[in-house]
Amino acid sequence: MAENNFNPEKIRFKTAVLGGLIAITFIITQDFISASSLDLPEFVSILSFSISLPLLGMALLFYQLEIRDQGSNNSRIFPFVDNLCVIIGMLCTIIGVIAAFWHVTWIAGLVFLVVSLVMLALLIVHTKYLS
Could you identify which of 26, 34, 99, 101 might form a hypothetical disulfide with 108, taking C-beta atoms 3.0 to 4.6 angstroms apart as the criterion? Predict the structure, then answer.
């Protein structure tokens, strides 16, 4: 039988992060969805958000089910599907936000992209340092 790694604090943190990403997606989408015609950055943003919303929503559902079952689900596919939904959902959200900034001005989009990559590198270094 697989080891139970149920950690409610970790699930609460993941839920807060994913909820924030979903909120950002809805806020930005409100402006673009009512546009009569979309330029390329708006189209990329809407397309990215249309991929990320169902994936992040599904990941939130997975976390709620894990809380309900208190981590007793020993399925081998759950961690793979969960990680896949979260990673693709987060990447699509970041791409959508970059495209939204790019729509306003390409400089803002580029700055957001560079700062996001630097923060990702710092997160990787920090994570490796902790483990």
Answer: 101
The string of pLDDT tens digits covering residues 33-69 is 888 888 999 999 999 999 999 999 999 988 888 888 7
The answer to whether position 2 is within a domain reads no
Kindly state whether residue 1 falls inside one of the protein's structural domains.
Answer: no
Quick one: which of 123, 93, 76 has its CA closest to 19?
93
In this prediction the pTM is: 0.84
Q: What's the rounded Cα separation, in Å, for the pair 56 and 91?
A: 11
Q: Is residue 20 part of a domain?
A: yes
